[in-house]
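SAMPLE LOG
Freezer: B-3
Tube label: C17
Construct: single chain, 217 aa
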Amino acid sequence: MKKIFWVIPAAMFLVSLAAVVILNARDIKPEDMVFDTSAAELVGISQAQAVTMLENNLDAFSARADDDAAAVPEGVISVAREGGTVKFILGERFGSYTQYIAYGDAGVAYDGAEEGYNLAAYRKELFGGWKYCVDYIKELTFTKRYTAALSPRLEEKGYAAEDCQIELVLMLKELCASPAEKSKSAYVVRARILLPDGVLLTGFFDPKTKAMIGFAQ
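STRUCTURE (predicted):
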């Protein structure tokens, strides 16, 4: 009888230990870490407002699309020319979204494995080669834990986390700089931090442990 009382707890301990080992060995799934965020939740003006702006100022938009010396249309923050595409930026927030009207090929999607699993793109064909576009970053689970872990690291450098802008992207660690390879997962959460003085830092988190690995070297 005594032997039975000893064997049962030992067996339960081994089962529990095996369960812990299995759970620790199991990697995260990117789809489980990304919230289903829509572009409309993030942007500063609605799609309807953006299209109305284009329609009401089509001559100005067209002139600038043809000639970089032409005036920037009213309501446009800046204009960028990338190859054969002209982007009229209507709003943007670091680490969140860029909203724009594009003339030309604006692309359709991001490759999660190559660029980031929570990067997203919304495209709406309008008329005459014009497109309404939003490139945005979907929120990750445990975002508050990542920013909380980042706070003391920034304080060591003389910055307050609330004064910085932070972008979090889930990526394959093999595509990232050192010390991303120290992640216990096949993935890392890359944090790009825009400091108040304009300096850009890059750090990495282990998505399994939620601990910060360190800043890029």
